[in-house]
C-alpha cells in the first residue's frame, strides 16, 4: 500500500506591484500611468512559447487604447468590444517585452495560481495569488529588478476580488466630496469643487463619484 500524501498548506496573498518608471509594456504604461484609463482588469490569458493572448475589461478612453494597440510593435492582433459608454473589452495577441515575459514567468510556475482578475490602475498592478509559502516566496524573488513589491494581504482566500473594491482615485474623489460639502444636507459643495480638489475635469470627478457610490451601495444591499 502506498503512503498517504501529506496535505500542503497554502496561503492567499494579495500582491501590489509598483511599476512606476519601469517599461513593462506600452499598454501597461497606459493602464497604470495616465488619465486615459481609470482601470483595467486582466480577465483571462493564455501563454505559449512565443506569445501571450489576453482578454481584459477596461474603463476609460477607448480611442486612446486603440491608438496604443495600433502603434505598439509587439501587439500582433487586437480587437475592442464596447460594453457601455466608458467600458470595453480588449483582446490582443502579443509577442511581449522582456520585462513582461519576466513577470509572466515569475508567476506561471508549478504550485502557484493567479486568481483573476489582475487589476491595473494608477497604483500599479494588483495580483491575487494562492500557493505554498515556498512557491510564493520564489515568485517574489523572480520579479524583475526595479518593480516594487508590497504584500497587502496574507491569509485564507475569502473570495474578494480587486474588482469589488473602491480604487484609490475613487476613494480620493469621495474624500474630496466630503471635504467640500458635496454630501452635506443641504449640499454646500458641487462637482466643480470636487474636480478642483482632484485637479481634473468635472465630468471625470462625477464619474469617479458615481462608480464609488455604486460599489458601496451594492456592497450594502447585496
Structural account:
The protein folds into 2 domains: 10-164; 168-221. It has an 8-stranded antiparallel β-sheet with strand order 4-5-3-2-6-7-1-8. The protein has helices spanning 26-33, 62-71, 98-107, 133-141, 168-180, 191-198, 202-221, and strands at residues 10-18, 37-47, 52-60, 75-82, 87-94, 112-121, 124-132, 148-155. Strand 4 and strand 5 form a beta hairpin. It is α+β, with helices and mostly antiparallel strands. Helix 5 (168-180) crosses helix 6, helix 5 (168-180) crosses helix 7 (202-221) and helix 6 crosses helix 7. The chain has 7 helices and 8 strands; from the N terminus they run βαββαββαββαβααα.
Question: TL;DR of this structure?
Answer:
The protein is of the alpha+beta class and 222 residues long.
Instruction: Average the pLDDT over all residues and give the rounded result.
Output: 86
Q: What is the H/E string?
A: EHEEHEEHEEHEHHH
- Uncertain runs are none
SSE class: alpha+beta
Blueprint of the fold:
Elements lengths: L9 E9 L7 H8 L3 E11 L4 E9 L1 H10 L3 E8 L4 E8 L3 H10 L4 E10 L2 E9 H9 L6 E8 L12 H13 L10 H8 L3 H20 L1
Antiparallel strand pairs: 1-7, 1-8, 2-3, 2-6, 3-5, 4-5, 6-7
Helix pairs in contact: 5-6, 5-7, 6-7
Amino acid at each position: 500500500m502506498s503512503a498517504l500524501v501529506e496535505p500542503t498548506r497554502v496561503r492567499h496573498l494579495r500582491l501590489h506591484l509598483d511599476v512606476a518608471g519601469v517599461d513593462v509594456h506600452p499598454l501597461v504604461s497606459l493602464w497604470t500611468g495616465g488619465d486615459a484609463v481609470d482601470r483595467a482588469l486582466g480577465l483571462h490569458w493564455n501563454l505559449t512559447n512565443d506569445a501571450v493572448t489576453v482578454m481584459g475589461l477596461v474603463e476609460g478612453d477607448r480611442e486612446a487604447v486603440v491608438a496604443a494597440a495600433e502603434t505598439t510593435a509587439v501587439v500582433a492582433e487586437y480587437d475592442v468590444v464596447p460594453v457601455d459608454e466608458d467600458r470595453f473589452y480588449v483582446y490582443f495577441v502579443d509577442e511581449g517585452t522582456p520585462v513582461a515575459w519576466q513577470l509572466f514567468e515569475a508567476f506561471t510556475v508549478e504550485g502557484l495560481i493567479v486568481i483573476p482578475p489582475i487589476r491595473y490602475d494608477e497604483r500599479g498592478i494588483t495580483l491575487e495569488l494562492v500557493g505554498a509559502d515556498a512557491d510564493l516566496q520564489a515568485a517574489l524573488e523572480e520579479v524583475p529588478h526595479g518593480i516594487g513589491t508590497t504584500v497587502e494581504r496574507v491569509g485564507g482566500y475569502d473570495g474578494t476580488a480587486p474588482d469589488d473594491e473602491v480604487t484609490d482615485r475613487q476613494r480620493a474623489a469621495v474624500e474630496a466630496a466630503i471635504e467640500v460639502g458635496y454630501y452635506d444636507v443641504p449640499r454646500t459643495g458641487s462637482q466643480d469643487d470636487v474636480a478642483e480638489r482632484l485637479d481634473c475635469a468635472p465630468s471625470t470627478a462625477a464619474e469617479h463619484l458615481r462608480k464609488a457610490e455604486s460599489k458601496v451601495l451594492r456592497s450594502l444591499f447585496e
